[in-house]
Design goal:
Layout: H1 2-15, E1 21-22, E2 35-38, E3 43-46, E4 52-54, E5 61-62, E6 67-68, H2 76-86, H3 95-99, E7 106-107, E8 123-129, E9 136-141, E10 146-151, E11 162-163
Antiparallel strand pairs: 1-7, 2-3, 3-4, 4-11, 5-6, 8-9, 9-10
Length: 166
Amino acid sequence: MKNILKLAALLVATSHSHAQTCNANITRSAPDSRYELLNNNTEVKDSKTGLIWQRCSLGQTWSGSSCTGTASTYNWTNALQTAANMGNGWRLPNIKELASLVEEACYNPSINETYFPNTISSYYWASSPVANDSNVAWIVYFDDGVDYYNFRNSAYHYVRLVRASQ
């Protein structure tokens, strides 16, 4: 009976989603004032970089109030190809562009949730290959905002597309 109660408590504890946590003592690196909504609120213009971002991760759709649905994962080659197939200038961001979205005052996820709601607290691909290893490419971990790298064709991560301002 004790084991059943422990298991039930564990299931309840792990079934709740975690909310973003921010440190009020750290100046926001990606404040709301930096962004502007475009195209029926499905795109976000970053005034700091001039880039336009898709508001939702690939696989999700804008519902009018949030990004809904299940974000898709891709290996690096498929992420690049999917971005190219989108047209209209959409592409996979390079590592500096992707890292520019990191909100340094927050984690789980480490991004501005007002403008990028329901971002998965996980790895997102950048288009940048790692210079000294042709098998790996850069990623940003949007749980804590740190850059990493992973194998291009055996790792599957999320994608957020970007394009130049028009």
